[in-house]
Amino acid sequence: MPFILHIETATTVCSVAVSLNRELLALKETNTGYTHAENLHVFIQEVLKEASVKPSQLSAIVVSKGPGSYTGLRIGVSAAKGLAYALSVPLISVDTLQSMAYHVSLKTPGLTYVPMLDARRMEVYCGVYNRALQLLEPVNAHILGGSSASVFAPYSPLCFFGDGMPKAKALLSHIPGAVFSENVFPSAADMISLAFEKYEKQAFEDVAYFEPFYLKEFMLGAR
Known about the structure:
By secondary structure, the protein is an alpha/beta fold. The protein has helices at residues 36-51, 70-87, 96-107, 148-152, 169-172, 192-201, and strands spanning 3-8, 14-20, 23-30, 58-64, 91-94, 112-118, 123-129, 135-143, 158-161, 179-181. It folds into 2 domains: 3-95 and 186-201, 2-Layer Sandwich (Nucleotidyltransferase, domain 5); 97-181, ATPase, nucleotide binding domain (Nucleotidyltransferase, domain 5). It has a 5-stranded mixed beta sheet, sandwiched between helices. The protein has a 5-stranded mixed beta sheet with strand order 8-7-6-9-10, with helices on one face.
């Protein structure tokens, strides 16, 4: 029965969890801006203590791979790789948008899911996932505009969510049957089931060469 540590830093959320199989044992998270550098390692220590799990008992380290904040992803992935190497355990990556879709699918099953993360100005990082959480459209940086509704409408019934959703809502509200789920943010707790499936399949990353899915190149002044 594997104890697994999960790290989510792709957005303003800093979230860490410990699980046993598919069960959440401990969770610590905050959404108070880009405080990952200050909070991440403290949260790791706190969840391990709360779950009564020693680092040496961990069977794998899981990290949210993006897309998202360049700095946030870099901090999370660096910590995850360092722990995986030091503990000689596998590294597992989970798609940030897919884990958000998993969360929403538990509350509103049977839809097509479109998680949206704010990518500055009128742009969002998004993907289109079916009810089995398989990608129907590649994850991309979508520029919101007059044609946005026609891009997503063929996949109706749709559920839109994420911190990029509010600025897209007016453009997409004309899609028949569209649902907008509020206050959905990435969380380490939502990585557990997806990560456990990868653990069972031994779908591990190469600790030396794994890089986050930045989607866009880092720009000066960007997060």
